[in-house]
Amino acid sequence: MVKPLTFKGDKKPRKRKRPTAAAASDDDDNDNDNKNRPSSASNSLAPQPPTTTPSTESTQNWTSADLPTDIAGPILLAFITPLPYCLACDANGKVFFSQIENIYTEDGSTGGAMIATAEPHDVRQVWVACRVGGMEGWGFRGHHGRYLSSDKFGILSAHHEAISTEETFCITPHPSDTPGTFSIKTSRDTYITFSSPSNPAKDSNPTPTPTPRADSLDPATHPIHIRMQTAHKTRLTTSIAAKAREKISRRELENMVGRRLEEEEVRRLKRARREGGFHEAVLDVRVKGKHDKFAC
Question: Model confidence over 217-265: pLDDT tens digits?
Fold first, then answer.
């Protein structure tokens, strides 16, 4: 058979393979399957079941603050009254007492309630405690983003979005030395307390709700239990322990090395303890102190 004339550089034509009968039947079956199968785009647009990650138990539990330095994050300011009450505020900034429902009792009655087990059941009962920069005080932000404040008459409110002297409070342990109780002092050296209604007999409620105020001059009037989330207390305790491990004295460093150290060596070892590689730095200082001519 005579072949056509070809030249160098010409592309070779590709030969087409004719499908056999078995291959054609397989292709038809695959086309039918693809038609019956939903497209990938429809699968991606189909509603997926929501995935929820269970929160850890530490973030859900509440514990009592032992020291003023423990206070951070969401807190509950609980008062010991005939009924368990806590400080709350509404969306308009009005501060009032709200009865605590999530509380365990010793004998099943309300009077024997253990205030140290109180937990909030309403977002209005939660305040976020934050330290005030440059001052030894705290600010308490409500659920609506405004801070608790006290005026010159001792009236509590939550109308301001920024912290000033009226929104700054000092937390000190209660003079009764009861564990977990505190006194909250305002910038005018008065303390947060509460007062009972002047004429409770006319009230239809047999146990009328007391009114919070901040005009008491005695820090031992009414102790306050501060409840906080366990996660914030654990994180704060861990950071304090880490800072304690970073501190080391010159004498301890000299005992580890076995000789007196120079100022540059002390600074080097302390920097290594903060940033890491402390043990390697101690070995380097030991080797250099032996006057070995082969030491690096």
Answer: 888 778 888 888 888 776 655 565 566 666 788 888 888 888 888 888 8
Helix, strand counts (H, E) of the chain: 7, 13
Task: Give the per-residue pLDDT at 20.
Answer: 60
- Is residue 288 within 8 A of residue 268, CB to CB? The reply is no
pLDDT value for 1 = 61
Element (H, E) at 228: strand 224-229
The one-letter amino acid at 132: V
Residue ranges of the chain whose pLDDT lies below 70: 1-2, 18-60, 105-113, 134, 197-207, 234-246, 290-296
Q: Which phi and psi (to 5°) does residue 147 adopt?
A: -100, 150
Q: Which element (helix H / strand E) includes 213?
A: strand 211-216
Q: Could you tell me the pTM of the whole model? A: 0.56
Helix, coil or strand: residue 296: coil
Is residue 65 left, alpha or beta, with left meaning phi > 0 and alpha meaning psi from -120 to 50?
Answer: beta
Judge contact between 256 and 273, C-beta under 8 A. Answer: no
Are the C-beta atoms of residues 74 and 128 closer than 8 Å to each other? yes
Q: What is the DSSP string of 122-189?
A: SGGG-EEEEEPTTSS-EEEE-TTS-EEEE-TT--EEEEESS--GGG-BEEEE-TT--TTEEEEE-TTS
**What separation, in Å, do the N-terminal and C-terminal C-alpha atoms of the chain show?**
85
pLDDT for the residue 54: 40
Q: Which residue from 65, 78, 84, 69 is spatially nearest to 192, judged by alpha carbons?
A: 78
User: Using CA atoms, how far apart are residues 186 and 169, in angstroms rounded to an integer?
Assistant: 5
3-state secondary structure 68-134: HHHCCEEEEEEECCCCCEEEEECCCCEEEEEECCECCECCCCCCCECHHHCECCCHHHCEEEEECCC
